[in-house]
Each structure stands twice: as structure tokens, then as C-alpha cells.
Amino acid sequence: MISPAHARLMAAYNEWQNESLYGAASGLTDVARREDRGAFFGSIHGTLSHVLWGDHMWLSRFTDSPPPPSSIKGSSSWIEGWEALRAERKKTDAQIIAWTDGLTEADFEGDLTWFSAAMNMEITMPRWILITHFFNHQTHHRGQAHAMLTAAGAKPADTDIPFMPGLMNHL
User: Fold this and answer.
1) Is 140 contained in some domain?
2) CA distance 37 to 150
3) Is the C or the N end of the chain the one with fewer CB within 10 Å?
4) pLDDT band at 167 (very low <50, low <70, confident <90, very high)
5) Looking at the domain assignment, is residue 160 inside a domain?
């Protein structure tokens, strides 16, 4: 099972990687960010919007924050403007860090039940698995964004956890 320390590490990693990807993507034109590159959510912008949408959806299940107003089908265009997407990403990363800072061992115990619109059914799963999924979902789609950015000529930072600045502060 994962722990509060693991969740805090993953929240810090999430923030670090988002700063890298958004910084690299900011060096591209809006047209290049929106070009369909064959990923699950099409473009760099669409993929980053989907990750942010997913973070909001899961945070609404873990906390009292509201879910995003659109469905998963609209997740790639949830936030259209680049600067608005960047600002919401930064705000959400701070929210994720604050959430993980308050986690205790008890927050990983028990089950969570939610209605999945994607599956059109109510689902119940252990909370620790869903928190694991939350961070895994980010990593999966950020990997896609990293590959698209690299192919577009941008240079995001390294993705290896051992090279994260300030790593020892998160242990």
C-alpha cells in the first residue's frame, strides 16, 4: 500500500513535471500546441487539458472541490486559452500539494464509491488504488505530452524522480 509520504512525493513530482512541460510548450506557437499529433487527446494542448480535467475530476472525489463542468469527451478542450490553462495548472498543482500535505494513513484505508460517466456505472474501489491511479494517470499522459513536445523540437526537462530538484526535502 502507498503512504502519505509517497503521495507527497508524487505531488511534488507532478508539479515539477508540469512546470517543465508547460515551460517547453510555451516556446511553441499556439498552432504547434494544437496540432493533432495522434495522441489519445490529439494535441499537446488537448493532452495537457485532459490531464488537468482528470486531476479536477479525481480531486472532486477525494475532497470537497467541484468536478469540472465538462465530460471526458470535452476534456481536451476544457480550457481553450493557453494562458488560462497554464494558470489553472499552477493553481491545481498547489491544491494537490495542499491535499497531500494533509493526508494521513487513514486516508488510504477503506473504499471510495463514485459514478463513472465513462463506464456509465457506480464503482467502488479501495481508496489507495484510486490515489495510485490519480498519480499514474498524470504520469501516463504527461509522457505522451513529453514525446509530442520532443518531436516538435521543444526540450522538456528530465523525467527521472531521482533527479527532481529538492527531492530530499520531500522524503
Assistant:
1) yes
2) 12
3) C
4) confident
5) no
Q: What pLDDT score was predicted for residue 170?
A: 67
Query: Which of 107, 151, 102 has the alpha carbon at shortest distance from 128?
Result: 107
Give a yes or no: residue 162 inside a domain: no
Cell of residue 49, nine digits: 487539458
Q: Tell me, rounded to whole angstroms, the distance of Cα 12 from its chain centroid.
A: 12
How many angstroms separate the CA atoms of 118 and 90, rounded? 26
**What φ, ψ does residue 40 adopt, rounded to 5°?**
-50, -40
Strand residues in the chain grouped as ranges (E): 111-116, 121-126
pLDDT, tens only, 50-69 = 999 999 999 999 999 999 99
Residues 2-54: tens digit of each pLDDT: 999 999 999 999 999 999 999 999 999 999 999 999 999 999 999 999 999 99
Range(s) of the domain holding residue 105: 4-154
Measure CA 35 to chain center: 21
CB atoms within 10 A of CB 103: 19
Domain count, the chain: 1
CATH number of the domain bearing residue 36: 1.20.120.450
Contacts of residue 132, Cβ cutoff 8 Å, sequence gap at least 6: 2
Distance, in Å, from the CA atom of 121 to the CA atom of 123, rounded to the nearest integer, reads: 6
